[in-house]
Amino acid sequence: MARRTMLILEDDLDATPAQHQVTFSFEGVSYEIDLNEEHYSELQEAMAPWVSHARRVSGRRTTAKRSSSAPTGGGSGTSATAIREWARTQGIEVSDRGRVPANVRASYEEAHA
Predict the structure, then answer these.
(1) Residue 105 in contact with residue 111, Cβ under 8 Å?
(2) Where is the segment annotated Disordered (predicted)?
(3) Which band of pLDDT confidence, cut at 50, 70 and 90, is reported for residue 59?
(4) Distant-in-sequence, close-in-space partners of 12: CB < 8 Å, separation ≥ 6
(5) What are the sequence ranges of the domains in the chain?
(6) What are the tens digits of pLDDT across the range 76-87?
(7) Is the pLDDT of residue 10 over 90?
(8) Half-sphere exposure of 8 (CA within 13 A, CB side)
(9) Which terminus of the chain has fewer Cβ atoms in its 10 Å neighbourhood, N or C?
(10) pLDDT given for residue 95 in this prediction
(11) Cα-based distances in Å from 48 to 2, 6, 24, 53, 66
(12) What distance in Å separates the CA atoms of residue 81 and residue 66, rounded to the nearest whole number?
């Protein structure tokens, strides 16, 4: 018997379809919120002044991210979804599925070093 489970994200602010799951911590408490493109951009812009001056104390993800994409398997520890999201914000075309090209992964790692 086959079973298919689908995860459909809804923006936690206005219940529209969401494309991003954002995990963040503040004052020792971890949070996760689902956001559409507009709200994701607003959060990025709002956080940018603080993030640019903050010290990074851990990796990109501290817990497994719920995702409809396959695991990266590349060994870098960064999810393919996170790299694809970043690439799109940089104007780089990437497919929704399959392996992330090595040059895109390398550019991502260089930008986040």
Answers:
(1) no
(2) 54-113
(3) low
(4) 18, 33, 34, 35
(5) 1-54, 58-113
(6) 578 899 999 999
(7) yes
(8) 4
(9) N
(10) 87
(11) 44, 32, 13, 9, 24
(12) 10
Contacts for 65 with CB less than 8 Å, ≥ 6 apart: 21, 23, 79, 81, 82
Chain centroid to Cα 32, Å, comes to: 11
Residue type for position 101? P
The CATH number that domain 1-54 falls under is 3.30.60.230
**Coil vs helix vs strand at 24:** strand
Residue 96's pLDDT band, with cuts at 50, 70 and 90, is confident
Contact 86, 100 (CB under 8 A): no
CA distance 97 to 19: 15
Residue 81 near residue 72, CB atoms below 8 Å: no
With H, G, I as helix, E, B as strand and everything else as coil, classify residue 10. Answer: strand
Under a CB-based contact definition with an 8 Å cutoff, are residues 67 and 79 in contact? yes
Among 65, 68, 24, 71, smallest CA distance to 46 is for 24
